[in-house]
Write a structure and sequence with these properties.
Chain lengths: 868, 129
Amino acid sequence: MSTPETIVLVGHGMVGQRFLEALADHGVTRRARVIVLCEEPRPAYDRVKLTSYFSGATPEELTLADEDFMSRHGIETHLGDAAATLDRTARTVTTLSGSRFHYDTLVLATGSYPFVPPVPGRDSEGCFVYRTIEDLLAIESYAQTARTGAVVGGGLLGLEAAGALQGLGLDTHVVEFSPRLMSIQVDEGGGAALRRKIEGMGIQVHTGVGGQEVIAGEDGRVRSLLLSDGSKVATDLVIFSAGIRPRDQLAREAGLTTGERGGIVIDERCRTSDPNTFAIGECAKAVDGMVYGLVAPGYEMAETAAAAIADSLGGEVGRPGFTGADTSTKLKLLGVDVASFGDALGTADGALDVLYSDSRAGVYKKLVVSPDGALLGGVLVGDAEAYGTLRALTGSVPPVPPESLVLPAGMGAPAALGPTALPDEAVICSCHNVQKGAVRAAVTEHECTDLPSVKKCTRAGTGCGSCVKVLGQLMDAELEAGGIAVDKGLCGCFSHTRAELYEIVRTLRLTTFAEILDSQGRPEARQGDGCEICKPALASVLASLAPALGSGGHVLDGEQAALQDTNDHHLANLQRNGSYSVVPRVPGGEITPAKLIVIGEVARDFGLYTKITGGQRIDMFGARVDQLPAIWARLVDAGFESGHAYGKSLRTVKSCVGQTWCRYGVQDSVRMAISLELRYRGLRAPHKLKSAVSGCARECAEAMGKDFGVIATASGWNLYVGGNGGATPRHADLLAQDLSDAELVRLIDRFLMFYIRTADRLERTSTWLERIDGGLAHVRDVVVHDSLGLCDELEELMAAHVEGYRDEWAATLEDPERLQRFVSFVNAPGAPDPSVRFVAEREQIKPDLTLLSGPDIPVRTLEGTSSR
Amino acid sequence: MTTATASTPAATAGAVLEVAAAGSWHPVCPPSALVVGRGVAALLPDGSQIALFADRAGHTYAIANRDPFTGAEVLSRGLLGSADGRAFVASPLLKQRFELATGRCLDDDEVSVPVYPVRTVTAAHHSAK
Ligand code: SRM
Ligand SMILES: Cc1cc2nc3c(=O)[nH]c(=O)nc-3n(C[C@H](O)[C@H](O)[C@H](O)COP(=O)(O)OP(=O)(O)OC[C@H]3O[C@@H](n4cnc5c(N)ncnc54)[C@H](O)[C@@H]3O)c2cc1C
Ligand code: SF4
Ligand code: FES
């Protein structure tokens, strides 16, 4: 019996793991003995996502090999033991611990090590590199005793490390020897824009200087970093991120050919100078002379080597060799959009530039184009929205002129170029080299109908994640084209979406829920009562359209009353013990002392708990339902109105103090915020709407985190849309620039009405903008360029809303019938609810929860109860 | 302030809704006090709270007002709906649904709320009780 072929893999990193998976795919693991030597104490993990450890990912979540991958394929792994020497004649590897393994085929996937410049003091306590999970654990624990941190190296990884330090709460410095940040990927202009962005995050950037010496105190711990210009940065911690070097020592010592500047030389099939030995990933020097420091080329090498080995064992994989790869990158650093792709620095013969740069907004975009118009590459800083599409178009002549791909809103022709315009060969995910054709096939042939299954099927989107957006758009387009029925229905009662129902209600002029349910509902739901999902959703549609359909809109009128969520029904927010909170509107956050006093008096007289909200107003908690009318009578009397804290409608328009007082302000942001809040108050929408107006680019009002945000410029206002705080924060996108007051209001009118018309139930503008076909470009076409000819109608709808606005609380107080609903008990109208009681805390009240926890079921907290 | 005991509303309309609890029928309110699709809360003589509902089909239901998930007396303020022809109320706090006829929680098999029989009586019958 012949002993099976033995394959030894040295290094279990990202590429090594991919190699094992490819071996398994080709059936090699069934025929050969496979041994893995892994220096790190844990099996392969996702190094690309290393930094996500600091945002909560556990080492287990970063792991790449699922639990039983190794055992399922009979792969022997030796953790925490590195290969120390290689005997090529005997074909054995000996590990540090002294174990020796014979091999028939050897695969080196040893990756790289971080280069630490030979500066004095570099071994002091507090000096780190940024490469492994162990490095991060060490940095994290040391940072607890540190206040300041410095990163030596301003490349991609250095900036990521700096972001991590800042996230750990340290004052952070970046020191970069070359004159700009990320010099490998971006050009001078891009570097300048990037620097402004990074500095805007509060990180101090020193370029054109090198770290010269690490100075430690007597205790051996880092105190400062001496720079080459003689200046000193006081710091407690230093991370070296000055580049990486291939780990080729093992190979070199065994006499394999290595490059002059490092890297194990390989041929197209990833064979080294010894035909029994392969090298893949960052330790290898490819036939194009490159040592790639990115994972995508490494994966290709892994596939190539695995195919070559399978073939040599009688397989017929016949995969083309590895001759070179794309080095596109997108920075994952929080809050900064930077991307470079293709020939970003324009090194090809005759390459031409298309450049758009706005230093004020920190946006820099450059495309490199060949004389025949083919897109060769580019750099995007400050706005990398188009990255996915542009990267995939690289190498071809784009279907629209390149200028239009980089110009912002309102300038030149809009770029209506979605991923659907791409050819099938376009690479959508460069981490896993997945082409558009494969994504389409996942939907059409493998019946994937949601993003997770498309990701699982194609692997696209499971690397750096920068292609996920394009992936989603492609999947949706494909689903739609295939007419695959995904039940997008609103709920069990309606098979239409909210947007479709909006159109139906508008065109058929339906005015009651019963009418809509009985004529448009699913057959089994007609004549029924609807449900807790469609009732409030349709109440909102009816309310948004009421002024235009002339159907009278008070939310407590007639059948409408039965549709509202309890908050809308009582015009207040229900709290955990059954009491309510009261939030009067404070437009723009501006309030007179007299009104402040009224709030104080009302709260005191009714014994309410008061708190300043995150929305620049005051919330009063602990009112019983039967107290609401009396509380509001006092407030309305003093000139307050409902703040709609309960409704899916406009909440607040926050403002900064602006030009009137602030030395930096360039416009009167308070005046604008107040006028916007008064214009859109009471507007019912698919979800709540928030806004803010900042007086200058410092953005103290956080307008970029709002559904529609306004930032003053020297010549007018910039309008941003689709921002969100909350669970999935999103920075708003610039819709149009330098608008006059009237232009601003007109665009917001159209934007809001278009959103209300087309969004799904409970879909904030941010998710809506990400979801709808064509995204921001489409919305801009519709509301700025009136491409659908809808704008007149949208403006009329808003005019009708403004015209029809009445304060809901004032109207309620005038109507005895509506007031009847504000009782605790139908058979004891004057009786207060005995279960609503309070206890004292910090000189105010809080709900007495012991009263509520009955004998049977303990009180569960919001966090502990799963919602549907 | 009034003490927390139930009083029969001055029912001019003649008809009264009654709820059975602890072995006897208690008059609560006229049927007209219920809005279809919404609930009202009522106090029983022993101080416990119930939630009354009317659906589109004309049925009336009474269940305990206490939301078992949070302990708050709020079920009367939930939204009424129907699925497969059976009426339910969704708690206004954490949205669990309770079938009105049985009190069964549709989102958690282990939880239910008490239900109470309801009937409508004319004034004549009522006074003859
Ligand atoms: C009172 C307040 C917290 C505070 O004490 O400061 C608050 C309280 C609530 N927020 Fe908020 N949010 C408050 C400011 C915010 C902010 C900050 C802001 O507006 O600038 C945000 C992030 C900004 C944003 O929305 O993008 C915020 C993001 C949320 C979210 C997440 C939304 C999202 O898109 O992810 C929810 C949940 C939801 O709406 O689905 C939420 C929901 C809620 C609810 C309504 C939860 C509920 O259903 O009971 C809370 C109601 C309390 C009550 O009964 O009055 N609240 N909430 C703030 C009221 C502001 C106001 O004056 O109206
Ligand atoms: C913070 C960070 C962010 C990154 N972001 C990106 C990104 O966005 N996009 C991108 O494309 N790339 C990124 N990279 C680079 C990417 O992680 C690497 O290209 C990839 O990990 C290379 O895989 P590899 O298997 O060749 O090397 P590694 O993943 O480094 O694996 C090599 C393994 O071999 C082990 N080893 C070495 N010598 C021996 C020995 N003698 N015996 C046994 N074991 C040995 C090492 O301990 C290591 O575990 C990032 C890297 C870092 C550190
Ligand atoms: S955003 Fe500008 S104008 Fe407004 S407060 Fe801040 S610095 Fe002043
Ligand atoms: S491009 Fe990195 S995951 Fe797709």
